[in-house]
Structures are given as structure tokens and as C-alpha cells.
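Page 47, continued from p. 46.
Same chain as before, 219 aa.
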Amino acid sequence: MKSASVKKVLSSLLLALMLGLFVTSVRPVSAEAATVSLTRKNFSVSYIGSSSVSFKLALPYSDIQGVVQLFENGKLVGKTTASSYATIDYAVKKNKTYFYRVRPIYQGKYIGSWSPRKAFSTVTLKLQQKYDGTRTLKVTVPKMSGVKSVTLLMSTSKTSGYKKWKTLKPGKARSCRSINGKKFATGTTYYIRAKVNLKNGTPCESAYVQNYYFYNRTY
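Result:
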């Protein structure tokens, strides 16, 4: 009986300990006494418009917020605070690179350092149709400060199927007559995504996906 009672008590203590650990792991741990470190996985750009930029935050605690800063040419151009989605009213310019970062805040006080920066580019390619007996698309990469190279990817779908075509330096151009081994055709919209590679190595997204449509030439 004594052995059974001891086992029962031990089982109860073990269960209580497990429940305590479970509650601790799932409840929002108060950030009041915590130091929070954010990584690039905790935030991203969700929308880039003509007059505003929106961000999505995935913060580790439910009772904290993030202060988001947006930079252009090293200058702070926008700042806001939010828990999950943040919007900064700012009209971005084409062929620019913008950096952004987030810092955790609790009840008006910073509780961690600034996150590593991320970037997005408003690179806008120059697309020209050439007539040399074969449907040819000339793509020109604009000159951009801080850009090491631009990797061009093409697809016949806006959302999937992108294949690497060429990697060009800023200011360079290249002509293309086919996509994935198939010659360009009329009646098909071709999508081009420009992956910007920055000199400082900061991960960079492209704001736009461009497209081109070949029209029949009758003369």
C-alpha cells in the first residue's frame, strides 16, 4: 500500500510538473522582464504601392509590438509601430533600394536591439521588342547604386514556373529569343522577375513583376 501511495504521489507530482511546463510554453510570456531578439524571419514586406509600403510582423510574444523603420539612401523616411501589420505612408521611387528593420517594444520601452536589415528594390527593367526575323526581347538593367548584379528569371505564369535566364550588371543589356527552349510567340504574356543582388549582401526582394506581350508585326 505504501508503495502504491508513493507511486501515486510521484505520478501526481510528475503530472503537475508537465502541466506547468505546458502552460509556461504556450502562454504569452510577459515581455516585461524579457529581452527579445528579432531575426529576419520575424518580419517581411507584404505590399508595395504607389504611396505606401506595408509590412507583416510575426513577433514571438502576443503582448509586444514592433517599431518599423524604412530607409532610402541611408535616410530614415518612415516609421511606425504595430503588432502584426504595419503601413508606412511613403511614395517609393523606381530604381531604388530601400532598407527596413524592426525593434521590439513593450509598453513604450525598447526590450531588444534592432533586427538585421532587409531590403526591397523598385528596379524597373527596360523591355524592347526587336524585329530581326525572330521575335526578340531586349532587356536592359538600369544603373543602381549599391547593386552588384541582377538575376533575371522568366515564366509564362505570374505566380510560378520562373527559370533563371541571365545575370547582368547594372547598366547592361541582353537580348533573348526564347524561354525554356521555346521561341517567343504572339498571344502569350511573358513575366520577368528581377532578383537584385546587393553589394553588402543584405537579402533583397523585388517590388515588381514585369510582363511583356508580343504583338504581330505587319510591316
